[in-house]
Design a protein that fits this description.
By secondary structure, the chain is of the alpha/beta class. It has a single domain (4-153), classed as 3-Layer(aba) Sandwich (Mannitol-specific EII, Chain A). Helices cover 40% and strands 29% of the residues. The protein has five helices and six strands, in the order βααβββββααα. Strands 1, 2, 3, 4, 5 and 6 form a six-stranded mixed beta sheet that branches. A hairpin with a 2-residue loop joins strand 2 and strand 3. It is globular and about 35 Å long. The N and C termini lie close together (11 Å).
Amino acid sequence: MDILSIDLIDTNISFETKEEVFRFVSEKIHEAGIVDNPTSYYDALVTREKLSSTALGNSFAIPHGISDNIKNPAVGIIKLSKPLLWIDESDDPLPAELIDCIFYLAIPSSKNVGADNLHVEILSKICCSILEDEFCEKVLKETDVNQLYDHFKSIL
């Protein structure tokens, strides 16, 4: 199953808030036919983010939503043109976190066979890769969508 699509990779884009990011990716997932209702995916992202921040350090965040309305698992990438304040110390006990790159996931709920394992497997692969300096450098420097696709595809 191919969960990464070049159509879900964007570069040189900016947002003022993570909520804007969530709305943008919800529309992208909807346009790709992965979810019928973008609001359900948006709500899943917001609900997950309220549990704890999806900022990982090293300039990366992995917002992810799990929902019954997601038809197929998908992963997307956004390379920001300017860093985004993901964690605001005034609203969160965690230290401020600026993000340059976002990997977002849309995962069908566990009612779908294997969804829980897939969710953990994808997050694990991304998190392990972010710990590798070489991977981070390549992804953070890259601006070409096709090259980002190739870098990221190699870890999935």
